Structure formats: C-alpha cells, structure tokens
Amino acid sequence: MKIEAERTIPIRGPVEVKTNTNIKGVEDMEMKEFNKKALKVGYEYKVEYLGEKQENHGKIVLSGDVFFVDPAENNEIIDEWKNTKKLPKLVNLEILNAIMRRCIIKTMSISEDVQLPPPIAIPIAKEKEEGQ
User: Fold this and answer.
1) CB 86 within 8 Å of CB 93
2) Most buried in the list 56, 58, 68, 130, measured by CB within 10 Å?
C-alpha cells in the first residue's frame, strides 16, 4: 500500500471532508498458495479537506490492491472492465466495501498523525440531561 498524507495550511473554521474511491485497474492472477484464480483490483482512496473558500487544507491518499476470488466469473469481469472500465454491480459493491473498510481505519489514524480532522464523524459521549 502506498500512503501520501499532508496538511498544507492550518485549519481555522469549518472544513468539508470529501472522500473518493477509484478503481484503477483489474487483472487476472493466480493465487498459488491457495491453488485459486483471483482478480487483483488496484484502487485509490482519497480524502480531501476543503475550507469555506474551497482552499485545500490537506489530503490523505491511499493506493493499493484488493483481491477478489470468484473463478467462475473472472473472465466475464475482466472483459467488462476492458470494454467499459466498470465492474458488475454486485462485484463492484463487494470490492468498494472491502476498500472502504481497509482505508477508513487507516485514514482515521493517519489524520491524527498529520493533525487533520477524522474522515468520518466520531461519536461523542455527552452528559445525560435531567428527565432522560
């Protein structure tokens, strides 16, 4: 996995956190350890921090690969990717969820290291009000 993170200017005021996941490539591969065929899916997960005037406060970019094992459909999936640069809906959802699970956890830690807000809201404990 490749990690790029930077805070470009201090944050003063509200910040919009934008996330984006892109699939960069799909290729067939052999998982010799398991004696199975798989798809290697390259991705980029990006978190951008924009101020009120759309000034860039920083970013976190993670690039890597996830593997999808479904030998019955590998050729069909690769053909669709080559022709349309899209994956079948159910495969796409499964892969995007795997990417987001991996990347959200990592970006939570990285954002703290570079002094940027967390990419997702963290629950905050509050004192109970009387009558509740």
Assistant:
1) no
2) 58
